TrEMBL record, chains A, B:
Residues 1-20 form the signal peptide. It comes from the Bacteria. GO terms for molecular function: acyltransferase activity, transferring groups other than amino-acyl groups; hydrolase activity, hydrolyzing O-glycosyl compounds. Residues 33-90 form the Glycoside hydrolase family 13 N-terminal domain. The lineage of its organism: Bacteria, Pseudomonadati, Bacteroidota, Cytophagia, Cytophagales. PANTHER family: DIACYLGLYCEROL ACYLTRANSFERASE_MYCOLYLTRANSFERASE AG85A, ENTEROCHELIN ESTERASE-RELATED. One of its GO terms (biological process) is carbohydrate metabolic process. This is Esterase.
């Protein structure tokens, strides 16, 4: 009955030409109580199917049963949210039976959520929930109407006298404005830390950081001129640098440094996660840079760079840390195990939220 | 330079193990000014790559160039938004280079937006935009915290004296709470029709209609008991059946009939799009049904069923239309060319919006 229903509902969502290609519905991934995970994929014709995930160091083979369902069960993994994908006769694809797709412009992977025995900081818990609003703003800089996600905390009232601090939060290089919520779970992390009294209620603005074919530096202008203005026009925000933060991951971490450190009068908090800095904008801003460190150290309430020791950007990040320290800037670092992953990124973000606006 | 940047940004968003599998970034789909479309896919090893889309009657072959990029250009298609996918040596997958994925639980396809020479009703236009809020509500019926998307119209103010009518809008069988915005573009259609004065400002609530493993009829209870209550508690809504509508597509169309027609004291507008009705709940509700037609015709401001003549549910939908008319219910029908598609669904929805709350 259940399978019949699945098949019927699959049938209902497409034209008949495409239905003919559609596999039967199967459950994948299945996360077991001991944190092992079973992945499944249906193909009667494939010769080799493997699964790769960011909890593995190499792809694992899947095996086919008599009904054409390929599967593999991996041993217990550390509770977290991981990207994974299948390779079917060398074709990489997202898990067709998993709703949760990594929001990205350049690849399609799925995400699997392995819950902790105790609820993890990014999990949906029984606390008051903020909301995420999908909005559009006009960028005079870029001559476009562009998308924007805005987290408002539980109890947010746009008309109350309460005004809020704002964190501007930027995704990685080929991510989208949805990656910080869909993969980073920024909203649940904020809900939980606010409920625990560990983070201040704040607005979190998640713009779309890719401005191609415009030069990357135009995003700095867009942020400083258009996005901040949109927020000040449409939300009860505190228009004071002490209540404004910028953070971002990877390419967004580089953008964070460019935006924040060239505008210390506008952002008192600058938090870069595994920043990618091999850009013309970074070179222009920070080669032969001669900041007034004393003044900047007063303006910046926190300047933090986070990175994992297995991150492939670990070396350039260390060099940048040394460079900034060499300019006598007060810089906190969070250096932890792990790679250039969203697992690490959520950790950096949870750390940031507990520092902001205090 | 551009390609270098693409490669770098692709590189930055994953671990190195996965990067090794990653193809070079290419542009796909490219929609040309004459409405022809070029699709591209990279593989040096594939033997056969085809593309299928809902603007085609059969898959078309793609051809490989010397750099391993497969492509096909299809002749001009009627401007609309279409789902499509690739088949690579018989493996069906979404376009890796296209950000826009069809929100669905059971397949992964991409969507391509072919703009009209004049802006189509579902396009992002230069009008005031409403917002979509991603929220969570507690369902006492289902014992779960469940997701919900809520469209609020331009100028919406939760604290003003203005109270709003509400449309409850349900997705298809294997879709998600995001399908009505991501594929249906319900928000842009509402923005544009409100801007043109053709639709009343309203709230649009898009719940997640799948309640498995609970019986499907539990969604009716969830809607009537939990979702309406959540809206009345959290939004300035008019708590009167004349200002409450329910609509849905496919399985959601069947849910619409079950919800609306068994609660005509709660919903004055019942709008089913290609409803799927081969369910226990529908059978229980409408076999040997003996409604008080006179009373229901007074309660229902509009009862509409829409379907395409090529829809594979056309025959059962026609039979249900005859069944409801045989009960002397006032029923409007919108019967148009086209199949069981979201292209048709957007058309039905735009028609509904212009009828509601007038």
């Amino acid at each position: 009955m259940k399978n019949t229903l699945y098949l019927l509902s699959a049938l209902l969502c497409s034209t008949l030409t495409i239905v003919a290609q559609r596999p039967p519905s199967i459950s994948s991934p299945d996360v077991h109580p001991d944190h092992s995970i079973t992945f499944r994929y249906y193909s009667r014709t494939a010769k080799k199917v493997t699964m790769n995930g960011e909890f593995l160091t190499a792809p694992v083979a899947m095996t086919k049963d008599t009904s054409g369902i390929w599967s593999v069960t991996v041993p217990p993994v550390k509770p977290d949210i991981y990207p994974y994908s299948f390779s079917v006769d060398s074709v990489q694809l997202a898990d067709p039976n998993n709703t949760y797709v990594f929001a990205n412009e350049r690849f399609k992977r799925s995400i699997v959520d392995v819950p902790g025995d105790q609820p993890l900081i990014h999990s949906l818990q029984n606390v008051a929930h903020g909301k995420i609003s999908y909005r559009y703003y006009k960028s005079a800089t870029l001559g476009q109407t562009r998308p924007l996600l805005i987290y408002t905390p539980p109890g947010f009232n746009p008309n109350s006298k309460t005004k809020y601090p704002v964190l501007y939060l930027i995704h990685g290089g080929s991510d989208t404005e949805e990656t910080w919520t869909k993969v980073g779970r920024a909203n649940f992390i904020a809900d939980n830390l606010i409920a625990q009294g560990k983070a201040k209620p704040m607005l979190i603005v998640m713009p779309y950081g890719n401005v191609r074919p415009a030069p990357m530096s135009d995003f700095t202008k867009d942020m400083v001129n258009d996005i901040i203005q949109f927020m000040q026009t449409n939300y009860p925000v505190i228009a004071d640098s002490r209540y404004r933060a910028v953070a971002g991951f990877s390419v967004g971490g580089g953008q964070t440094l460019n935006i924040g450190l060239t505008n210390p009068d506008k952002f008192a908090y600058v938090c870069a996660y595994a920043p990618y800095t091999a850009t013309d904008e970074f070179k222009k801003n920070f080669t032969d840079w001669n900041p007034n460190a004393e003044q900047m150290n007063k303006q910046l309430a926190a300047f933090t760079i986070s990175v994992g020791t297995d991150d492939f950007l670990y070396e350039p990040v260390k060099q940048n840390i040394a460079m900034f320290k060499g300019k006598n800037l007060k810089l906190d670092t969070l250096i932890v195990p792990g790679g250039h992953t969203w697992m690490n990124c959520r950790l950096y973000f949870a750390n940031t939220l507990q520092q902001l606006f205090k």
